[in-house]
Every structure is written in structure tokens, then in C-alpha cells.
Input
Amino acid sequence: MSELRTDRLVLRGWRASDLDPWAAMNADPVVREYFPEVLTREQSEASVAGFQADLDRRGWGWWAVEIAATGEFIGFTGLDPVEEGMPFSGVEAGWRLARPAWGHGYATEAARAAVAYAFEGLGLAEVLAVTAAGNLRSRAVMSRLGMTRDPADDFDDPEIPEGPLRRSVLYRLRAPGTKVRRPGAR
Output
């Protein structure tokens, strides 16, 4: 899968021209408010290389997002297997956009395309999303996607240092028509 399209957006592989706006976005403390730190240019470059390697290998992952009408890079969205050591497993949907792209519905639109691909293209029964408990903007996107949260699934992210960002919430969305039984459920 090389790219996904919506009415307004293209989710695609990464280009060299994406690096400057991606690095600027990751150096913005407002964009990175719910992460432990901003990223250096080198860290941003390394993330792009990893994202593209995953796309090349699997055909899906973290796609660059651009506005279809202008070709402007605005951030990323996509899917990624949950990292080892987390108190749950599965495939996570995520997104991050540059501040000028906030408030236009782009995050929800792009995430909806990624989730549809997870269900229709990959045949997944469930997609997860995780964020810091205080990240109300991302939680609103999760709700708009139809994801639900069980407070019993909330957790302290082992990758985040002690502090206000450590408490995380887990949202779930099941594929249409899928019934997932919880462990211990009858």
C-alpha cells in the first residue's frame, strides 16, 4: 500500500522535502506538549527513516500527510504495532499535525482513513489509540472516530518518566460486526 486518499488529504510515503517541516513540528513545544521533550533535527531525521523503512517493509505504518489540493506537508498519521512492554498488545492508530493544520478536521479525517485501512486492508478486529490523560485534543479525535475508553485500561506508560505525562489512556475501536471477548468474560 503506497498511499491512502481522502477528500482533502493524501497519506503517503516520506519525501526529503518533508524533513524540514517535520523537524520544525517536532521542535515546537506546543505540538510536543504531551511528550517528554521536543526532538532534535537528528531525532526527527531518524524517525522519518524508520517510518519509511516500515512502510517499505510492511506496506503500512506512519504515513506522511499532505493536503491534496496544495501538496503541503502537515504531519503524520497511521498504524503501528504496540511496542513491547506495554500492558496491552495490538495495533495502534496515531496522528500528529503541525499547529497551522489544527482545527480543520484533518487529524480525524486522516485517522479515519488509517483505521479503515486497518479493518478493510489488514483485516484487524480492533485498533487502539493511546495518549496522555491530559491530551484532550487527541482524546476528542478518538471519540470522533467512535473509539471508547474503559478507565480500567488506563495505565502509567513505562516509557514516560515520572510526572504528569506518565498517566495514559487507552481507547479501542472494534471492526464493524466484530465482538471481542475480554479475558475472563463469559
